Amino acid sequence: VRTRRGSGDLESEVLAALWAAEHPLTVGEVVEAVDAKLAHNTVHTILTRLHAKGAVVREPVGRAHVYSPLLDDAGLLAHRMHAVLDAGTDQAAVLSQFVGTLSPEQETTLARLVGRRRARGRSRGERA
Amino acid sequence: VTVAIFVCLACAAAFGPTVAVLCRRLPPGIATWLLSTGSVISAAATCTALGLLSSPWLVQIPLVADVGEWSRPALAAGDPVFTPLAAAAAAILAVSMARGTSEALRAVRRLTAIARLVETLPTDRELYVVCDDQQRRAFALPGRPGHIVVTSALLKALDAAERRALLAHERAHLTRHHHLHLVAVRIAAAASPLLSPAARAAALSCERWADELAATGVGRTAVAAALTKAAGHLPAGGPNGSMAMAASHVEERVQALYAPRPRVQSWRLLVPTLLLISMLVCDGDAAARLTHLLEFAELH
After folding, report:
1. Beta strand A56-61 with A64-69: parallel, antiparallel or unpaired?
2. What is the CA radius of gyration of chain A?
């Protein structure tokens, strides 16, 4: 029994497939990599949306496009956040790790990180 | 007073180990709810019992007796609690409350830190990928809406069905607010160390719950395969010894996924429910007796 997936869920799956691939993918290749039963158009719409959000880069190849994931600002933040959690873990500890077992040093690093992000967000807001 | 209180404390002591064992035989959703709400009720009942045990002695302190306008000789005559016992109960209660409060404050601080972090992320996307080709990791960041963070190494290791399983698992953590269950059970266990087996069981139970929810969408095999691959390349040796536990959890979760889906068997809930009810009844009984004592002391 497969539950119906929302478009947000599918969006994450498409992004995950692009990250998992070794090279940029065409729309057809993304369909293959996510779920061969999906309509070409659906995936194309999702890729366009991801492109608009700045999560993927699109390059023209012949008359079509190839898509690859983009390490953007948010990805960099996630990367630093991930570095904060440098205690080894796996699926089993992920949630409890993040909610429960930050050491005091990790907590201060996290707080500093948040402070910096907020300051940057504010200055960007003033410029706009 | 004393008998009821000791029955209550005995039930509270039995609750933690009982549910920890029982939860492996219950569907993980029910198990998680039982662990979190049961632990909170049990911790509250324990603190109430300790309070009731110590209050006949506390109200005999001259200042307290004066404020309540209770007759101290009448209290002394009617007080059936042995003084050192009552004093010990008061001390244990103070320590429990302090530990529970500090754990609660810590949880609030952490959740606010996460909430602030999530605020800085754009809300239009669910998944964030960390470019890390060494470590296979994934976690859920609770918030409105929550986010999923996964390393590229983990995504590269999985096929399409396994990636879907991984996302469904993390999404289940977010939609069912698993972090709140874990926080609740941790606060309860801080206040009452007798509940620490329940706190450990809750961590596993939340993961099992997310596994089962993911399995309804993508199938049990895909979830089990994703789990095995994610755990396959664990970085050697965690700094806090969390590794061994995590690894054994994975094994247990994979086995549970290959076993038939757990069914609801309501008779298994009988013992923990009876324990919880007896705690509340005993507390109520002891409270009624204490009220009688104070009314009696007020008249004299």
Report:
1. antiparallel
2. 18
CB contact under 8 A, B149 and A82: yes
**Helix H or strand E encompassing B65:** helix B62-68
CA distance B134 to B142: 25
Q: What is the tens place of the pLDDT at every residue in B66-111? A: 887 888 888 777 776 778 889 999 999 999 999 999 989 888 877 7
Residue B265 amino acid letter: Q
Name the minimum distance, in Å, from the CA of B77 to any CA of chain A. Answer: 49
Give whole-number Cα distances, B63 to B56, B67, B73, B81, in Å: 14, 6, 14, 20
This complex has an ipTM of 0.80
Model confidence pLDDT, tens digit, residues B100-143: 999 898 888 777 777 776 777 777 788 888 777 777 778 788 87
The dihedral sign for the CA sequence B105, B110, B113, B119: negative
Token look-up 């095999």 returns B221
Q: What is the pTM of this model?
A: 0.81
Torsion of Cα atoms, B288 then B294 then B296 then B300, to 10° = 180
User: Taking CB atoms and an 8 Å limit, are A98 and B141 in contact across chains?
Assistant: yes
Quick one: tokens of B144? 């409105």
Q: Which of B36, B108, B121, B127 to mutate to test the interface with A (most CBs of A within 10 A)?
A: B127
- Cis link prior to A104 (omega < 30° from 0)? no
Q: In terms of Cα–Cα distance, which of A101, A16, A114, A52 is closest to B121?
A: A114
Q: Residue type for B80, please? A: P
Do A77 and B121 count as a contact with CB atoms less than 8 A apart?
yes
Which stretch of DSSP H or E encloses residue A115? helix A104-127
Count the neighbouring beta carbons within 10 Å of the beta carbon of residue B118: 17
- Distance, in Å, from the CA atom of B243 to the CA atom of A40, rounded to the nearest integer, reads 43
Give the C-alpha separation, B187 to B190, whole Å: 5
